[in-house]
Amino acid sequence: MLPQSQSSSLQRLNHVEQEIQTTLREEIKSACEYRPFEKCDYSARIANEICCKKVEYVLEKLDAMQKNIEECSTTS
Question: Some GO term, biological process aspect, for this entry: which one (predicted)?
């Protein structure tokens, strides 16, 4: 027979294992559920990312123009 401390440790370990299994089942179930609104959200996120890329591109061009202006003013 196991000592009392080992028995309670095993019970706690078993309880933690059951909690982990339950959590994993819930996460897997949630990941597999149908989410009809995600596609709408996806389009908005992609559009936002594209807009951010456009802004970054414009900023790069403006920085290049500023650099050219500074170079021209120093050579004059």
Answer: regulation of transcription by RNA polymerase II
Report field, pTM of the whole predicted structure over 0.70:
no
Q: Compute the distance between CA of residue 56 and CA of residue 47 in angstroms, rounded to an integer.
A: 14
Residue with tokens 């500074």: 70
Q: pLDDT digits over 1-24, tens only?
A: 557 777 788 888 888 998 999 888
pLDDT in tens, 50-74: 888 888 888 899 999 888 888 888 8
Alpha helices, DSSP H, located in the chain? 4-32, 38-75
User: How far separated are the first and last CA of the chain, in Å rounded?
Assistant: 95
CB atoms within 10 A of CB 40: 9
